[in-house]
Write a structure and sequence with these properties.
It comes from Arabidopsis thaliana x Arabidopsis arenosa. The chain has about 525 residues and is of the alpha/beta class. The chain is built from 18 helices and 15 strands. Strands 1-2-15-14-11-12-13-3 form an 8-stranded mixed sheet, sandwiched between helices. Strands 6-5-4-7-10 form a 5-stranded mixed sheet. Strands 8-9 form a two-stranded antiparallel ribbon. The protein is globular. The chain binds beta-D-glucopyranose (BGC). Beta-D-glucopyranose binds next to α7 and β12.
Length: about 525
């Protein structure tokens, strides 16, 4: 559904939003008060550095689009990997049979079975289970991680009710494997891990075929299953959403990590070279890697310098240098900062927003009397403050900011007066506003890239962006800031765009892609 509008005002719902010409009385309740004085120099500078007025956002959107083109031209052409996914056909609705989805991408993994009944019956039955991954497996060996997954998968299949789920005779159980990390895909059912993100650091896996790792573990557990499609969660979301809406062109994840995948015309992908140049294919942008023209602050740089990927890179170099090579070492450090920073992800996704706020508060504490004369110990602990805490604090509408007070007390073990609580909320709002607005600029870049090739909006066709991820779902202020950016950058063009919250469809999408790419 899309509505024409003249003066762009959003009419959002949690499920989806389109754009309306009537003034909406929807107000995101926020603890930010207009009368809150930000007299702290650290905060004032931070707010200035994070500012993203419309012309700035326009530059960001243009720069992302330029890097998309560069990444489509040659491998490594720009900050965005623009990975070829080998998904040329999205679900049509005709898919039939029993398929599975395995989803690994965060602290939990999910396994799902889906009995598909074709155009008429659609999803006949589905069952799923979510299992949390023990912390030690996220930084252990690949055998440990995949062994754990295979064991859980085996017990899930063993519990299957034969009446509800039926595997056709002579067929193996086929899996759509959603692996939500940057992967260089080599075919629809294989790909090598480029690097871990989101706090994962399983040893010896970078450069390895992730499907082979899963296959070995399944074999060891006597599981006769095969991976028919290896997909990113953005691709899964796009495919799952497309099953019920043929205008879905983009899948965006805004959760612990972030990414966007979209339908591209093959003729617009020079790096496809010899392959057929007609039709469309899905591109996994890995937009989290974008790092140009972003409003970086010292806090972003310091967080990046201390993040697992960045830290690891420095440690790998360090032993090879002694004092006389200090200059060379520093040069290499600078080089690795330029090459490895995934700044966009670190500015817009759920894993990092709380940590940026913590770092700002720490400096405010050290340079002024934010919480009295002392610096709370917990404020010096990385990742102690999480994005969900920011959300709780921003939703506080009480006059004395009670919830803010209790979050600060429970999480950081600090008693904060009203003035301090206000300042904390201002920091949260600054970080969340920048994140939401930058995410909006990214979506605009992709919408405009699609329009450049297809002219679909110009010809009055509707274009749908499927959104998923806890940050988008659970943080109303973030959503609102993202939507504001879309309105500012797209103006009238928004009338044919719908932003849809498609919760948890990536598992369905992966199972559907397993069906589309079935070997039978
Ligand atoms: C990964 C992407 C993934 C995204 C959302 C990022 O850290 O690099 O592959 O799609 O998180 O889960």
């Amino acid at each position: 559904m899309s509505l024409m509008f003249t003066s762009p005002v959003l009419t959002p719902t949690i499920g989806s939003f389109t754009f309306s010409s009537r003034r909406s009385n929807y107000i995101v309740m926020s603890a930010v008060r207009s009368n809150s004085a930000s007299t702290c120099p650290v905060l004032t500078k931070f707010q200035k550095d994070c500012d993203t007025p419309t012309p700035y956002l326009r530059n960001v959107a243009n720069a992302i689009a330029d890097d998309m083109r560069a990444g489509l031209a040659v491998e490594g052409g720009g900050d965005l990997d623009m990975i070829l996914t080998y998904v040329d056909a999205l679900p049509s609705g005709n898919e039939e049979g029993l398929f599975y989805a395995l989803d690994l991408g965060g602290t939990n993994f999910r396994v799902r079975s889906v009995q598909l009944g074709g155009k008429k019956k659609r999803v006949i039955a589905t069952e799923s289970e979510q299992i949390s991954i023990p912390q030690k497996l996220m930084i252990g060996t690949s055998e440990e991680l995949f062994g754990f997954i295979a064991a859980k998968l085996a017990s899930f299949v063993a519990k299957e009710k034969p009446g509800r789920f039926q595997l056709e005779e002579g067929r193996k159980r086929e899996i759509g494997f959603t692996f939500s990390f940057p992967v260089k895909q080599t075919s629809i059912d294989s790909g090598t891990l480029i690097k871990w993100t989101k706090g994962f650091k399983v040893s010896g896996m970078e450069g390895k075929n992730v499907v082979a790792c899963l296959n070995e573990a399944m074999e060891a557990h006597g599981l006769d299953m095969r991976v028919s499609a290896l997909v990113n969660d953005g691709v899964g979301t796009l495919a799952g959403a497309r099953y019920s809406d043929e205008d879905v062109m983009i899948g965006v994840i805004l959760g612990t990590g972030t990414n966007a995948c979209y339908v591209e015309q093959k003729h617009a992908i020079p790096k496809l070279q010899s392959k057929s140049s007609s039709g469309t294919t899905i591109i996994n942008t890995e937009w989290g890697g974008f790092s140009k023209v972003l409003p970086q602050t010292i806090f972003d740089q310091e967080m990046d310098a201390n993040s697992p990927n960045r830290g690891e890179h420095v440690v790998e170099f360090y032993p090879f240098f002694n004092n006389i090579y200090v200059f060379l070492f520093l040069f290499l450090q600078l080089f690795t900062v330029c090459v490895w920073m995934k700044l966009y992800e670190k500015m817009i996704s759920g894993m990092y927003l709380g940590e940026i706020v913590r770092r700002v508060l720490l400096q405010m504490c050290e340079t002024s009397d934010l919480f009295g004369q002392f610096v709370p110990v917990k404020l010096s602990t990385p990742f102690e403050l999480r994005t969900e805490h920011l959300c709780k604090m921003q939703e506080d509408t009480t006059d004395d900011l009670q919830t803010v007070g209790s979050v600060l007390y429970n999480i950081l073990e600090v008693e904060a007066n009203l003035n301090a609580r206000r300042r904390v909320v201002e920091v949260c709002d600054t970080v969340v506003k920048r994140g939401g607005r930058l995410a909006g600029a990214g979506i605009v870049a992709i919408l405009e890239k699609i329009e450049e090739e297809t002219k679909r909006m110009g010809s009055g066709k509707r274009t749908v962006v499927a959104m998923d991820g806890a940050l988008y779902e659970k943080y109303p202020q973030y959503r609102q800031y993202m939507q504001d950016a879309l309105v500012e950058l797209l103006g009238d063009k928004l009338s044919h765009i719908a932003i849809k919250h498609t919760k948890d469809v990536s598992g369905l999408g992966a199972a559907l892609l397993a069906a589309t790419n079935s070997i039978y």
